[in-house]
Structures are given as structure tokens and as C-alpha cells.
Amino acid sequence: MDIKRIHHVAYRCKDAKETVTFYTQLLDMNFLLAIAEDQVPSTQEPDPYMHVFLDAGQGNVLAFFEIPNAKPMGKDKNTPEWVQHIAFEVDSMATLLAAKDKLSAAGINVLGPTDHTIFKSIYFFDPNGHRLELAVNTAQPGMLEELKRVAPAMLDEWSLTKKAPQHAAWLHSGETFISKTKSIDESKGKTQ
User: Fold this and answer.
1) Which of 17, 134, 151, 164 is deepest in the core (most CB within 10 A)?
2) Are 1-70 and 82-138 in the same CATH fold?
3) What pLDDT, in 10s, does the model give residues 29-85?
4) 139: nearest Cα among 170, 184, 95
């Protein structure tokens, strides 16, 4: 199977117009299109809906359904609020801080920036209660490669113990990152 990319991700919203306004005015997304039906095409159920699509950058599409005849939106009571979220990447720390200022000025409660070592991020909620994150990459050379290298061992250990493996403890311990991979300068035959 050759999956090219995520076509779109869709979430429920309380009010399609309010949602589009939030994402276009506060996060500078473009409103791409709207689809409205009185019947669900895939199931043929009579359930009117408005389906709105927003450009989240570089071909990523974020969509929402307003379904007025359904029970009010709820949350997963068994999952902590911080787990389920949508994270968007921004290009710089200056952009991240400007976004925080813009959101705060609009009365949105913003948490952060939080330093995750490989990125810094802010967190806030949209009008529907969906947790959002804006993140800027801050990884030093070798960090992502090291995380990729230890990922299988970390997952295996987690599956057995359900305790945080220490393979990448440097992420949150404040330790200086030292790459475990070495490069060889072939012209000199020396390890660097």
C-alpha cells in the first residue's frame, strides 16, 4: 500500500461558523470549502451536517463536522485532557511567541512555552474544547536520529514494564545530549 499523506483529519464542532472564524482569524488558516448534506453519504442515515475544511499548511487539511441533531459533544472521561490534541508546527520561536500573544489578546488561556528539548510548544483550547498545540522544532543535530535509533528498544521495554524507559532520559533530565552514533571521515579513516 502506498499512502501518500493524510488527506484530512475531521473532528466534531459545536458551531461551524465560530470554528472557521477561530481558525482563520487566530491561527491564520485558509477556509477551503464547505459541504452540507441532509443525509450521510456513507451510511445513508438522515442526519444533517455541515462539514468545513481548513488549510493547515503544506497540504494538511483540518476538517470539522457540525451535527446539530446529535447529542451535545462530550469528552472521553477515561483519558486525561492533555492526551488527545492536534499539534501544528510553526517556523520559529518568534512565531510561537507572537501566536501566544495573539491568542492571549483574544482572551484564550495559553500554557507555555513548554520545553520538550527537541521542540518548544504552547497549548490552548479551541471553541469546541479540542486541545491544540503550536510547536517549533529546537532539536540539535543527532537528537532525532538517536530517538529513532532507540525507539524499538524503548517500545519493547515499555510493553513489558509500563514504566518510562531511560534510553532517552536526556530529553527531560537536563543532561547534555551526546550522540551515540559516530561518523567516519573516510578520507582520513578517523572516527570523529
Assistant:
1) 134
2) yes
3) 999 999 999 999 999 999 999 999 999 999 999 999 999 999 998 888 999 899 999
4) 170
Which residue(s) pair with 55 in the sheet?
30, 61
The CATH class for the domain spanning 1-70 reads alpha beta
Query: Taken in order 148, 149, 150, 152, is the CA torsion positive or negative?
Result: positive
Q: What's the CATH class of domain 82-138?
A: alpha beta
Please write the tens of the pLDDT for every residue from 88-104. Answer: 999 999 999 999 999 99
Contact 135, 90 (CB under 8 A): yes
The whole model's pTM is what?
0.86
- The overall average pLDDT reported for the chain is 91
